[in-house]
Specification:
Low-confidence stretches: none
Structural class: alpha+beta
Bound molecules: zinc ion
Strand content: 15-25%
Strand order of the largest sheet: 1-6-7-5
Order of helices and strands: HEEEEEEEEHHHHHHEEHH
Shape: elongated
Distance between the termini: 32 Å
Largest sheet: 4 strands, antiparallel
Helix content: 25-40%
Number of strands: 10
Number of helices: 9
């Protein structure tokens, strides 16, 4: 799933490529993906691409020079299997509805454009039209942006202190902190040498400090690494920077212990027992159930 660093760079690259272009086509291939009907998607055709910015894991595109009220927003959440693919030359053929990975095609009068796609069976990609991104509930309820200047260690400490969940869940819940998901929460916890299951409110001041700098460091590093990549390389570029996430069975680059996994119904977390849990493997509920 693309998280803060990937969506950030996606927005920057889209912003560079699309600036000043005029939307010629907005073809929906997955009707289920569109969550709003006001303003109608078709009413955005003819709009000028004004800006593209990230909020959490949402891509927010402002289209201007439209009839009243002048500009509208197209907001996209890529979910787990979504991506944006730039097309130098778009085919003029109509899109095939409800088949294949294509969710929406955005075409410009210059003949180029981009496809919003979603791989896999789990169709969760979402597209909204809005007068403002904050009209969308899941955007309005997002927590603070961890890379913003006002996201201080004190603020982070206060957020964790008020949490009932464990660190893994607190860090990856969007209403707590925006943009951090399964991958970067694994990475931040590994860098901070903290157990994913430690209750968020039970951290000492020193642990809050460590987790804060690890989280910010991991995100900044990932944004920096992605800056050198083009749109098409971003997706694969993410994995290269991971120390434990998605690396079950490989060696921890810090201590050499094997990277372990805890599985949940639809996802899993990775961690290093030596670095994070005092050498004690965490119970994998799925595995324990299978063994019974
Ligand atoms: Zn380790």
């Amino acid at each position: 799933m693309p998280e803060l660093p990937e969506v950030e760079l996606l927005c920057r690259r889209l912003g560079e490529r699309c600036a000043g272009r005029t939307v010629d086509r907005l073809d929906l291939a997955s009707f289920a993906a569109l969550k709003t009907f006001d303003p109608p998607l078709k009413s955005l055709v003819g709009g000028r691409f004004e800006e593209c910015h990230r909020r959490g894991k949402f891509i927010c595109i402002r289209l201007g020079e439209l009839a009243s009220p002048g500009s509208e927003w197209l907001v996209i959440h890529l979910a787990r299997g979504g991506w944006v693919k730039w097309r130098d030359k778009l085919t003029t053929a109509p899109v095939k509805v409800g088949r294949g990975p294509l969710a929406m095609r955005v075409g410009f009068s210059e003949g180029d454009g981009f496809d919003v796609t979603e791989m896999g069976h789990e169709k969760r990609l979402a597209i909204w039209t809005a007068h403002s991104p904050t009209d969308i509930e899941s955007v309005a309820t997002l927590g603070p942006e961890p890379l913003d200047a006002d996201f201080t260690e004190e603020r982070f400490g206060a957020i964790l202190g008020a949490e009932k969940a464990d660190l893994k869940h607190a860090l990856s819940r969007q209403s707590v902190i925006a943009g951090v998901g399964n991958a970067y929460s694994d990475e931040a916890l590994h860098a901070a040498r903290l157990s994913p299951f430690k209750p968020a409110s039970k951290l000492s001041a020193e642990e809050v400090c460590r987790l804060y700098s690890s989280l910010i460091g991991v995100l900044r590093e990932a944004v920096k690494r992605s800056e050198e990549l083009d749109l098409d390389q971003l997706k694969d570029g993410k994995r290269g920077g991971m120390r434990v996430h998605g690396r079950t069975g490989e060696a921890c680059p810090i201590c050499g212990d094997v990277v372990r996994e805890v599985s949940f119904a639809t996802r899993s977390l990775q961690y290093c027992a030596t670095c994070q849990t005092g050498g004690k493997p965490l119970a994998d509920r799925r595995l324990s159930r299978l063994l019974k």
